[in-house]
Amino acid sequence: MRYFLKAGGAVAVVGLMMAGCSSIGPGSSPAPAPIGASTAPVGGECNAQGAQAAVGKNATAKVVEDARVRSGARLARVLRPGQMITKEFDGQRLNLEVDASGKIIAVRCG
């Protein structure tokens, strides 16, 4: 138990030390500019019917976000073959199942 506490403390100290090194100085490049605020609705309860048009398309970021907005969901996740997933139901989440090539084969909420 003592070792765990010491190791955890060391990790925290190293993390704090590294945070102090992240300032921008001469010769270093600035952090990338933020992408900007999205105008897409935040979402709420998922309705998979609105996202059915995504079936057959490649699961690109644009397609996934479009499906999320159309379903009214708050968030979306892409489920790949053999991927471990959590099984808890979330009525605000859109699940997009894809095949091995990344093509969406099923759309459901949860």
UniProtKB/TrEMBL annotation:
The record's section on Pfam families has: Inhibitor_I78
**Signal peptide residue numbers:** 1-19
Task: List the transmembrane segments.
Answer: none
InterPro entries tied to this protein: Prot_inh_I78
Give the top-rank taxon of the lineage listed in the UniProt record for this protein.
Bacteria
Kindly indicate whether the keyword Repeat belongs to this entry: no
The major lineage groups are: Bacteria, Pseudomonadati, Pseudomonadota, Betaproteobacteria, Burkholderiales
Q: What is this protein called?
A: Peptidase inhibitor I78 family protein
Q: What is the species listed in this Swiss-Prot or TrEMBL entry?
A: Diaphorobacter nitroreducens
Keyword list, A-Z: Signal
